[in-house]
Design goal:
Elements lengths: L1 H22 L7 E6 L4 E5 L2 E9 L2 H16 L15 E5 L21 E7 L18 E5 L2 E8 L5 H18 L8 E4 L12 E6 L2
Antiparallel strand pairs: 1-2, 2-7, 3-5, 3-6, 4-5, 4-8, 7-9, 8-9
Length: 210
């Protein structure tokens, strides 16, 4: 029994180290923390470039298809046959008019629902739209997300459709209570690979605010 416990503890420690090692040098979009409120943060994000794809299906299926489309692009299916470094997060938002939206470096809506969704990866900051290799497929497009102010609710463990929706509702309640005006579409961001240890996972729901 003692040996079994030691082995299990050792495996968990290795899992923690691997999770930390994978994300420690992954680039994220640059932002300034404006304030830390009760339950959420307000951030000023600098502009950044994303590679995005529009897919349809359930939350889980959309993330899988979207990830495959963009991974194909960053792993070399582009005009320069060039690999692009992974960043974080992977971002998911419902595919609505961009005037209503919020939008890999390192930071995927009921089961069976078949909405169109945008899945996007943030591109490394060393690139511009001019220097990024162009996708060889029209499934993936490149776009600059302009600087903006965002409210963010952060949480751990695994993200699923129900949890994302619950976190959105919670953030709406807090923003309404504090008199903060929402001016964009919600998005969901996941910063860790699927096999990361659950309590170290970083997930966020974000929305543009005035």
């Amino acid at each position: 029994m003692k040996i079994t416990i030691i082995v299990l503890v050792s495996l968990v420690l290795v899992w923690i180290v691997v999770t930390w090692f994978f994300i420690r040098n992954i680039e994220e979009p640059k932002y300034t923390l404006v304030s830390k409120e009760d339950g959420y943060e307000i951030r000023d994000y600098e502009s950044y470039i994303i590679a995005e794809t529009t897919v349809s299906g359930s939350y889980r299926d959309s993330l899988g298809k979207g990830f495959q489309n963009i991974a194909d692009y960053i792993f070399g299916n582009n005009t320069k046959s060039q690999k692009i470094a992974m960043t974080a997060p992977v971002i998911e938002s419902e595919s609505q008019d961009l005037s209503e939206k919020i939008a890999m470096t390192l930071p995927v809506i009921s089961e069976g629902d078949s909405k169109e969704r945008r899945i996007s990866f943030v591109m490394p900051s060393k690139y511009t739209l001019e220097t990024l290799p162009k996708p060889n497929t029209d499934l993936v497009t490149l776009r600059e997300v302009t600087a903006r102010k965002v409210a963010v609710l952060r949480y751990t463990w695994y993200a699923n459709e129900k949890k994302v929706e619950d976190k959105k509702k919670k953030l709406i309640e807090m923003l309404n209570k504090d008199g903060v005006e929402i001016v964009g579409q919600f998005s969901s961001a996941q910063y860790n690979p699927p096999l990361s240890i659950p309590f170290l996972r970083r997930n966020e729901v974000l929305v543009d605010i005035k």
